[in-house]
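Ticket #4471: structure export looks truncated?
Reporter: QA, pipeline team
Priority: medium

Steps to reproduce: submit the single chain below to the structure queue and open the exported record.
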Amino acid sequence: MDIIVEGYLKRFIDEFGLDEKEKDINFEKMCFYAILNNELNYLDDDDLSEISVGKNKGIDGICLSIDGKIITNISEIDDLKADQRNFEATLYFIQAKSSSKFSDAEIGNFCDTVIEFLSPKPKYTLTTQAEMYHKIFVSLLELISYMKSFSCKLFYCSTGVWNNATSCASTIQIKGNSIKQKNIFNVIEINPVDGEKLRKLYDKANHPLSAEFIFSMKTTLEKIERVKEAYIGVLPFNEFLKIIVYQETNTLKPLFSDNVRDFLGVDEKVNESIDRTLKEKKFALFQLFNNGVTIIAEENISRGDTFKLSNYQIVNGCQTANVLYVNRNMEDIDKLLIPIKLIITDDEGIRDKIIVSTNNQTQIKEEQLLALTSFQKGLEEYYKGMGDGIYYERRKAQYAPEPKIKKKNIIDIREQIKTFVAMFLDEPHVVSGYFGKVYKDKSSQIFLREHKYDAYYISGLTHVTFKTLLNLKKIDRKYNKARYHIYMLLRKIAEPSEKVGFANKKMKNYCEEIIKILRNKEECLKSILSAIEIIDASKIDINDQKEIYKKSTTIALIEEYNKKYA
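Actual output as written to the record:
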């Protein structure tokens, strides 16, 4: 392996707390991480394991995304069927070779395996994980009439140097034409990733977002306390695109982690109205009809009309940005002007107030706004104060400037929601669904102003502890598929008394007893293995995603728990 890439791999292993002995597997995961973090809106360390298809012929990883968000189980496709909404889908295939050269034969084998995977009944034997993705793919084909586009992207990674003048490039072109003949995809890409490109992708994945654009049609707002700069104006579409899209890949940037409405799901009525205005080419009226986009950035290092933002987010205008992205290839779209409000500040209090004020719409209740502002800030500080070395990440890349904080010790808002719903609401079957729908369905039960932080913290600590034990091979990796069910059972096994309300003062005492077990690695492992015994005794097939994410499965596990611990 290239000595520089090997240095990156060591850093990656340390960040995620992986087993140093599994060098090839870790290199595959690093390739998944570097590539897909530049393609998707959201990717976490659990997804890296889900993407891996084990010792499958010719393919190391498979990933499916819907509107930039990863899909890892078939129940999420069922949610899409119920919604019957239009979406963009991309199917990714990754092959990672740590050798220092590109092999024509291996590239051909990779592409041929993909071509066979795209058949209704592949001739090659698939691993359990690859077979699951094939079922998702086949199920997704039933929704092809709802797709705005369907893309297929292949990435072949090597630590060597890519040369376009070799036979490998010809092989890629030939195999691309074979995939095209399937008549499934609008876009087909086969991308060679050499050592230099892999390093660049990895660096980009670990740095806060940045964008450079020209903002000439603007008014500078008067000086505001704790705000470095503030502007209001309009941006031409081609300049706005530089803010929301990765120029190299033409994919949407992960800009919406601070946007409340992104978590509440898609409001079809709003989207249809924006889409109709664009399709009718009422570009001049768009500025009057649309509230525009609000952007908050920590820094602007350029001056004049040229802006260079770093660590920025769209805090209002998620729907507008997404619909504009979908229509980015529309004829005459460059004539469009988008209303923009741009605030440069690194003050958390100002940021929270802007989020609340710009999202203060009738569809969003006040308590839901507070959930992503003051409650979140308090929860972040609670994590820090507990002394277990884990951190709550309210905003994407929040801890990127702090290299001492490893990704293995970070819980982000999505993982917080999923672990809490599974562990304390006894609904592990719910969290497998499309995330926007999960949050929408559970928003009235979580992050309430009167809630104590203890249960949320326990959920995060449980997740980090479980992943640590998994990476240390104290737990069979196959049980990672049932981790949310294990979290629920672990709480039941460890709890000292009947569960109390989340706003009850007794919640702290209730949680303290569970924390004692989580902090004692031997006791924690013992409790997790007891939870696994319950799963095994239930005879539930954890590889069957249709079965494991049914409500009846959760009920069966609780009944099995009651038999043992009644």
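Status: closed, not a bug. The export was complete when the record was re-opened. Leaving a note from the reviewer for reference: The two ends are 55 Å apart (CA to CA).
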